[in-house]
Structures are given as C-alpha cells and as structure tokens.
Amino acid sequence: MDKTRIELSETASSRLLAALHRMRRTELLILLERALERLPASMLHEVIGDYLPAEALAAGPAERPKGWRAGALLAQVRAFRGASRRGEYYEEATDSAATNCSTGTSRWITRFTKLLEEAVKWAESDPGEARLVFDLLFELLRRIEYGDEDIVLLGDGRLRRLGIDWDKVLPAYFRCLASCVTPEEYKQQVESTLADFIESNRSHYLAQARVTATPEQRAVLDKATNRR
To answer: Model confidence over 172-207: pLDDT tens digits?
Structure first.
C-alpha cells in the first residue's frame, strides 16, 4: 500500500476534523443527516451505538422516507409549513447557546435545508410538484423576513444565516416555473424572487432565468428588463 496516500489521508482527516470544530451546530446537523443517508444500515450501530441505546435505533414511525414517492415530498413540506406557522420550532437560545442558536432553530434550519435540497433534486423529474414545494418553502422565508409571526428565531442576518446556495436553488426553481407558467407569470415570479431573496448580483440570476425560459417567456422577461 502506498504510504504517501495514507499520510495524505490522515492529513485530510485532520483538516476535516479541524474544520468541523469551527462549524456551527446547524451546519453540523446538516452534514450529519447527509452522512447518515449514505451510511449502510449494518454500520449504523457501530458508528453511533456508544451514544445512543439500541432501543433508540429500533424501527418506528419514520419522519422521512428514504425515497420520495409522488406527493410525499409535498406532504412533508406542508406538514413542516404547518408546524412552523404554529411556532413549534420557535425557541430562544439559552446563554450557553448564544454563539450558536436554540435547539428549535437548529432543527428548523436542518429540516428546511433538507427539504430545499430535495426540491432541487425533483426539479427535473417532477417540476410541477417541485414548483409547489419551492413556493411553500419560499413563502416561509418571506414570512420570516417580512412578517410578524413567531416561526423561528434567526436573529441578526435572518435569511443570510441559512446559508442557502442560490446558485443551485434558483436555476432549479426557474426550470420548474418555465415548465408550468405563462410568460407573464414567469416574469413576475422571477422578479419577485430576486427582489425578496437576492441582495446583490441579481443580473447573474436574471441571466440564469433567461436560459431556462421558453422563447415566449424570455421575450417577456427581456422586454421588462429593457424598460428599466
């Protein structure tokens, strides 16, 4: 076995651990969920058995299926939206958690991020359902940023704290829109989305919207842009 590869692997592991120690709790939970999805069930107890008793790992009602069936993702998002609007995630951080956020906020961010990632995956195979999922999740963001409901406590920076990868999310959303709305609706949805969520470099995302648009949608979008 190549000794150099082992040393590089050990160095990479050390750097990864150091980076993990600098991350916020919400970021760690997101990474943990991604890792668990890829971990064979046979190794689950070996990895976390020291920290969770066997009965905690016993089969029970699952919050999320391994693979989404038609309608399942939308149902999950509607349930999440309802729980969010009922304030089930709203929780103030204790003094000891001041540098991170409350447990409720961590749970909300982790769940929101996962659902948004699933919507991006579904944009190609089921754009109609994915579009509805995007709309519901974006509605929650708007209520957090501009409304007065106690949905989740994000503190200063609000939406910026979520770390949304708009370079992945918006092209997927625009593809969904392009497949199921009129040219005028496409223009309106693109403009409102950029106005509500993108603080800078909107021209970059507008260019992406042009790429995914149909010729008719692109013509209406260009006409509105040229009027400015």
So the answer is: 999 999 999 999 999 999 999 999 999 889 999 999
36 CB-near residues (< 8 Å, 6+ apart): 44
Judge whether 91 and 103 are in contact, CB under 8 Å.
Answer: yes
Range of lowest pLDDT (8-17, 24-33, 61-70, 106-115) = 61-70
What is the residue-wise DSSP string for the chain? --HHHHHHHHHHHHHHHHHHHHS-HHHHHHHHHHHHHHS-HHHHHHHHTTTS-GGGGS----SS-SSPPTTHHHHHHHHHHHHHHTTTT--PPPGGGTTS--HHHHHHHHHHHHHHHHHHHHHHH-HHHHHHHHHHHHHHHHHHHHS---S----TTGGGGG---HHHHHHHHHHHHHHHS-HHHHHHHHHHHHHHH--S-HHHHHHHHHHHS-HHHHHHHHHHHHT-
Residue with tokens 């982790």: 110
Question: Is the Cβ–Cβ distance between 170 and 193 less than 8 Å?
Answer: yes
In whole angstroms, give the CA distance from residue 115 to residue 120. Answer: 9
Amino acid at 149: E
Q: Which residue do the tokens 């760690």 mark?
A: 28
Global pTM? Answer: 0.69
φ/ψ of residue 199, rounded to 5: -85, -30
